[in-house]
Amino acid sequence: MRIILLTYLTISWFSLESYCQEIVQIPHQRTIVWKTNTNLANQVYQSFASKKINFDKLSERGNTPRILLAKLLLKQDIEAVNNAIQQMKVRGVTGSHWALNPKGDYDFTLMPLTTILFLFDTQPDLLYPKTKEHLINTLLTEEGGKYRRATPRTLGLVADTENHILMTEGSRYLKNRWKRLHGNLSPTYDNVANGMEVKILAYLNRMKTNGLYEYNSIPYIGYTIAALLNLEAFASEKVSTEARNVLDYMNWTYALGSYKLRHYPPMRRRYEKAKIQELTTDYQSVFVKAWLSYAPIEPFNTDISNAEVHALVGSCMPYRPADKVVEVIFDKGEGYFVKLGHGKKSCPEIFMAGKHFLLSAGGANQGKNSLVIARPTTLFLNDNAQKLPETFHLKGKEDDFMKWNNTGVYKNFACASGKVFVPEAFKPILERNNWAIYTGKNNVKIVVYSTEDIGIMLIFEDMKAEDLLTNLEKSNANDEHIKTQFQFPDGQIITYDVNAPLNKWVIKSIDGKSVERDFSKWALINFESSIFK
Prior knowledge:
This protein is α+β, with helices and mostly antiparallel strands.
């Protein structure tokens, strides 16, 4: 119990920290004419709607609300759906499940039931009046102005996690709003008078300006997005706009940190997820794929394995990403170098994109209670790689991700304290001493320097291999110096410490100029690019 509480205290404290910020430009413009239906959405709806309703387990945690939602979307088994909702019972309480709150997690059910209420509120042929009455008076348990940020049974001392706060308080806010819109003038349901509006707005603004605590989290990011989608779709204009702004921030950073829907950044919360090697099925990617299926674009990889539940929600809600997000997911323009700060006791995301590649830094754990999962630093090329072993990547000497500092990424450059992993499909076109050059599509050259103590990856576009290797060997002739310093053919010099403390950026200086290595002070988004030109 003490360990669990310590973990929650850690989450509570650091989720409230603010840090060095700057004004960042997040795209919001929307001119794309989206399609009204797609094969992907229909397939997901059919998949869920084909499942039987288990009337013996209606009140248990699971996918029953999503099955009911899909059947309503397809107008199938309407009588059975309404009977099921009318028979459902409240199975527990909201807020995180833990030793002193064993009946917690009801918000995982509360949130999709809120979606059902609002989506089908004006369709009595689908959602019967009696069913709606049961939803409002029994199943949607949270109402009024008792906004709760604390984890239940912690004496108000421990803040709950983002996904629980958004699911619980978002549903409370929306039930109040529904009551008010349907004629109940009690102050209990007035979100302005009871303080819910200002509290929800403040929480969303904190996420927008400080970033997420549970960034890239598997599985929690999926529930955070779903809760935001409810607010974006059904809340007041102010709250809807702010929820959309948070989603736009999240999707902009996703666009910057992904390459053609492959995404493998550092993540937070569940250490048992550290062994995941799939590059295409993190939960935000699934939402993005659901949205993009409505866009007038060329076909793309629509693999949503193991996360259909999130594709279902993403498909049926009205939110769509900004134009620039859609563009940058597939087209990196002239490229960019971007650093995304996440505050104290966390690690940043660092990405370097060229026209035809993306370097994704793996991050660094900040102690057991930080819940940060470091990943290998990964190179995405214009190929069909779907899993980590199919990519060039760097990690460290040891297999323990909690000991890696994989923040060593700069422009066209990555380094770490271990060998470079080269996928089996690639054979060197040139190889001398510890150097090797490989070729990818679009004439991308991958240069590898690899020993037991250090691995370096360099990426160049439109350069001749022989000239490149000759210049690199000449500029970096001393094998001892290369452990701490690298010189590009154009003369630029980078210094680094691949054994840096886990709270410091591996990169030390560029052309003799020191860099800010304390990444807890980094801005939310700090990039050099031609994206907005």
